[in-house]
Amino acid sequence: MRILGIDPGLVRTGYGLIEAEGPERMKIVEAGVIRTDDSSGISKRLTCIFTNLQDIIKEHRPGVLVLEKIFSHYKHPATAILMGHARGVVCLAGGVAGIKLVNYPSTKIKKSVTGNGQATKFQVQRSVTALLRLKRPPEPVDISDALAIAISYVFMEMRKRTL
């Protein structure tokens, strides 16, 4: 099964596509970052994210799209709103393509990948590198976060099927 993990952001949207037959058999298919020009208006930036995701989905045909649930810190509500715009476009791209959409809280993603729900970005990056048997850590962290999101689906959903 192909699993597309997305780390949505208005400036950088990380994506990681893995192929998995189960927790022991995962490999990376493609990963990268969709960058938008911060001098462009929001509609142009969201269109960029949407069209790039459509291309990725068309080319690789994932069976599921996995996202982190939106998180808002009371000190930075504008960040959550901006992330919500990007997240909405990601959901739309998945919906238009008819792909199953799954959401997990960040603490569950971190726990499933590292064993610690409060893991740092560095710890997530290191775990992703080990789990996918990569020579180098994926960079920027938007990519390793997206891969961690995809991997968490394998650990949380695919493992259920084998029990």
Beta-strand content bin: 15-25%
* Broad structural category: alpha/beta
Strand count, sense and barrel status of the largest sheet are: 5 strands, mixed
Q: Order of helices and strands, N to C?
A: EEEHEHEHHH
Share of residues in helices: 40-55%
Given as residue ranges, the uncertain stretches (5+ residues, pLDDT < 50) are none
Radius of gyration: 15 Å
User: What global shape is seen?
Assistant: globular
- The number of helical runs is 5
Give me the side-by-side strand order of the main sheet.
3-2-1-4-5
State the total count of DSSP E strands.
Answer: 5
Mean pLDDT: 91
The N- to C-terminal Cα distance equals 18 Å
Write the topology of this structure.
Blueprint: E1 2-7, E2 12-22, E3 25-35, H1 42-60, E4 64-68, H2 77-97, E5 100-104, H3 106-114, H4 121-131, H5 141-162
Helix pairs in contact: 1-2, 3-5, 4-5
